[in-house]
Protein: GMC oxidoreductase-domain-containing protein
Amino acid sequence: MLVVAPVTVLSLGLVPRHATIVDRQTVGSNYTFVIAGGGIAGLTIADRLTEDPSVSSLVLEAGPFDKGEDGILIPGAYAPYLYFWPNLVTVPQAGLNNRSIGTVCAKVVGGGSAINAMVFLRGDEGDYDAWSSLGNPGWRWKGLLPFFLKSENFTRPDLTFARAGNISWDDSFRGNSGLVQNSYPNYFFPCSANWWNAAKSISLEPVKDPSSGDKQGIFWIPTVLNATTMTRSYARRNHDDRVIASRPNYHVLASNAVTKVLFRGKQAVGVNYVPSGGGSSSTVYASNEVILAAGCLHTPQLLQLSGIGPPKLLRKFGISIVVDLPSAGKNLQDQPTLTVPYTSNPASVGANLEPNSGTLLSNATYNAEQRALYDSAGKGPHTIVSTLSTNIGSLSLRGATAAYKQIVAQARARTPADSLPADVEPTILEGYKAQRSLILQQFENSTVGVGAIHWGTADSAVIYHEKPLSRGSVAINSTDPLVDPLIYYMTVTDPIDLQVYTALFRKHRQIFSAPAMRALDPVEASPFGAQLVTEDEIAGVMRDQINPSNAHQCCTAAMMPRELGGVASSEQKVYGVAWLRVADISFWPMQIAAAPTATMYASAEKVGVPPKPLGFFPDLFLLVTGTQPRSLWLRTPCRTMTDCGAAIACRCH
Ligand SMILES: Cc1cc2nc3c(=O)[nH]c(=O)nc-3n(C[C@H](O)[C@H](O)[C@H](O)COP(=O)(O)OP(=O)(O)OC[C@H]3O[C@@H](n4cnc5c(N)ncnc54)[C@H](O)[C@@H]3O)c2cc1C
Ligand SMILES: *[C@@H]1O[C@H](CO)[C@@H](O)[C@H](O)[C@H]1NC(C)=O
Ligand SMILES: *[C@@H]1O[C@H](CO)[C@@H](O)[C@H](O)[C@H]1NC(C)=O
Ligand SMILES: *[C@@H]1O[C@H](CO)[C@@H](O)[C@H](O)[C@H]1NC(C)=O
Ligand SMILES: *[C@@H]1O[C@H](CO)[C@@H](O)[C@H](O)[C@H]1NC(C)=O
Ligand SMILES: *[C@@H]1O[C@H](CO)[C@@H](O)[C@H](O)[C@H]1NC(C)=O
Ligand SMILES: *[C@@H]1O[C@H](CO)[C@@H](O)[C@H](O)[C@H]1NC(C)=O
Ligand SMILES: *[C@@H]1O[C@H](CO)[C@@H](O)[C@H](O)[C@H]1NC(C)=O
Ligand SMILES: *[C@@H]1O[C@H](CO)[C@@H](O)[C@H](O)[C@H]1NC(C)=O
Structure:
């Protein structure tokens, strides 16, 4: 039986009009949606939800608004540290010679999109197909592609320049009506051609379009650039400022941190928050849902502080348990990075080597000249993110090493439990086994990436390990919400990860040994160098040099079945409670073969779509499956539902 839901429009009189940016005096106390975290997910979803004027959303963001600094807006002046979350440090990392390592995430309106390196890549088809295999129908590549297209507005580069620089794309994989601006720098450092040609000479083929779901090979890096101004396109601009004047129902309260989700019974009803610098606590209520979008490190902290997490941990801190959910905070994955330094023999430096990305930093005259060109014409090296170059290579394991079969065989022979803590809960182990088996299938699949190689054209190259088998975790160390959680990346504690990583390293060395790179005479510098030959020698130095994070942390509140250690359903609803959803990168089950931003925007577009009205009744929505009311997005405030029974829709009050 279908029931028409009565219209219950929130009175907008409760909240100030045309005051999108609110402060603690003007913030309302009741909204349809309260969103914790104003990063990519938080702002994208708030934007989409408030397209409906009967919905109101408050985004609470721990960080401030940026001030339009050059370091944010101008690629060549990139200064991410302006809005790093301060003083984050890992616990000693057993796989990395017990180093405790400074680590970063964003603390600013716009989140990572405001300070990231603007790399805008999609994962491979197999990445999302694996998500789907973990109990998430709809999250396959084909299910996500429409949202990739919806999220972006691709501006073609100048065609003559594109031909000269080897930029290529396929229009059918690029969106044109979305709000995230996607384009390319309009300059390349001459020596990036050496790298390109060297990679080609060892059979890394140019890719028609890296956004097509298979990008093994070499290609230009799509960049989140507003092509009109050649400035950063980020969530604050594209999903907040853009609608500032027209959305009285969309509020952002900056510099305030959510401290706890409030429950009535098992229903989330609102949150507490405090000024990020400390101060008195306030409460705001959500008539529909509380949405967690605080990023991979802080969303699990919020779950745990709110009583959803491993019972032992919660008891240790005297937190009363709302849901016994050991997996909340587990399954942490990042994409470790390895920087390989080079010295060039000055006697034989090719004429081609200058200028390079380092010249902007080392030669103030050149930097000033090029900045003037950028300011006047939007051209030149300042359209490239500082320290990066314009091309990159993506590798499947098969593409990285002929020995991939041996690596996979060894990985299959290993007992999965050995890669997790000894006291792992059975559901988490089951989920890990499922993930591991999918990753090993990816290792055998030449269309799915495991890592990437980049040379910024100056004195170092970077190798990214994208598909770790190791799993970490995030755990509170205090009941004080302003104290950061403990971060256990557990990088390369699964020894197979280091085998994959050394394979990537050797491939990188092959590129640097090919004639086109040899022409520049790069010499691998200490602590690397030609003396490192065997697997053990290379791996030994790697343990000392790997950075466990590329600020691509994910997966600590994974959407997977609860029996597989999931935290949230395939609709991102947190198990064991109602009206609470995880919308940021925490809900991804596994890493993808790409930096996260493009997928984060697309997944937020998918999460933020309100359900379609059914038939002729504009207020009727498909609401319920099973015996428990399980709402999809509701356009109208709907706290209580009746007449559900076994029906597929409920009455909404
Ligand atoms: C320096 C850096 C470089 C990067 N480079 C790239 C790149 O080149 N390409 C790419 O694709 N990806 C890159 N990333 C990663 C990418 O930006 C993130 O994966 C992405 O932003 C994650 O989106 P999110 O919505 O999950 O979280 P975020 O965008 O991180 O947003 C989370 C927000 O929640 C806020 N928050 C946290 N706790 C609370 C709380 N208690 N209350 C209220 N607010 C809270 C944070 O301040 C933050 O603004 C980079 C990230 C960083 C930090
Ligand atoms: C806000 O919600 C709370 C809790 O549901 C309720 O007690 C309060 O009356 C509401 N306030 C307003 C102004 O609607
Ligand atoms: C790391 O620390 C652990 C525990 O203190 C210790 O057992 C181990 O030997 C250390 N490893 C290294 C490489 O120092
Ligand atoms: C490789 O992955 C793609 C994308 O998921 C899939 O279509 C294809 O069947 C896989 N190939 C093999 C041999 O498994
Ligand atoms: C897409 O980009 C072009 C400029 O490159 C701009 O003119 C157009 O307005 C943009 N469209 C959207 C929807 O942002
Ligand atoms: C582009 O490709 C051509 C042909 O392979 C090569 O000669 C040229 O050096 C390349 N240029 C760049 C910038 O990659
Ligand atoms: C590009 O940036 C300018 C300046 O911020 C802005 O006015 C314009 O709307 C942006 N273009 C798009 C398509 O977002
Ligand atoms: C610095 O750049 C200027 C301007 O491009 C150039 O003339 C000069 O030779 C450069 N200096 C050095 C030391 O390379
Ligand atoms: C965790 O908390 C304990 C007790 O307050 C403290 O001694 C320890 O330094 C904290 N650990 C970290 C890594 O902050």
Observations:
- Residues 495-513 form the longest helix (19 residues).
- The chain has two domains: 6-610, 614-653.
- Residues 1-18, 613-639, 642-648 have pLDDT under 50 and may be disordered.
